[in-house]
Amino acid sequence: MTRKVKKVAVIGTGVIGTGWIIRLLAHGKKVSAYDPDKTQEGKILKEINRAKPFVLKLFKKNKININNFKFFSSLKLTVQDADFIQECAPENIMIKRSLIKKIEKYTKSNTIIASSSSGLLPSDIQKNCINFQRVLIGHPFNPVYILPLVEIVAGQKTNLKYIRQAERFYKSLSMIPLKLKKEIPGYLSDRLQEALWRESLHIINEGLASTEDLDKAIIHGPGLRWSLMGTFLTFHLAGGKQGMRHMLKQFGPALKLPWTKLRAPKLSKKLSKKIISGTKKQSKGKSVSAITNIRDDYLISLLKMRKKYERKIN
Asked: In terms of Cα–Cα distance, which of 211, 201, 212, 217 is closest to 268?
């Protein structure tokens, strides 16, 4: 399957779709992209040019062959020769169902259709499909051209052979596939992020801290540990010589304390204003593009440095 995937179709070219395009081009794939908005082509080329130094550095490539990229305003022309399809439409179940049904009319019968959905159930997306066995979730993380994780989620009707094929394909893109044991709304990573996000909204809403305070609470503390170990191994170390056993005994009672409010607060105009003004202040006048460049350079340096220590742990 991996050797046969030479042509990839990306449907929808927002931030995630464009990220897929850049990663695919960096790995020598021929990419056909579809978007009903024809002005997206120029935006994609501009973003490829911006991100190129970062991906060349990360994947140790000499160049990106821009001739491998083609933009179409015709869905049929985009998918008809594709060996793999990555759908990146808006997070709306009706839009995705309708779009995938149209894709099926024009694509080869054995071509995987992977949705980049960040939380919709694949079984719901599969409804109305003709060949539902090849439809699955391939959920990436922004920036797609740098972060390696991709969550693979099967629907009730997905054939496991396509899950295995998708896993091999994503690995060929230097990604780390994480196969879910069972479909669940929000999958894994976004559920964890959502819990942190909801708690943050409550703290802001109650005037207990600024957006900058909360970001500092993560980036200068647990965030540094999470980039290498994650929550469970971090808490295992917190238990000292006895590890998690002692940690649960010592800190387990805290689970009964009112430390969190996982039900999200109403996103009122007042709360929205606090969040928007807070993050604007944090940006210190820098454009989103400028901060994105800083982030990309940092992530690449971090990933390269992290490999040295991952080998020691694993």
From this structure: 201
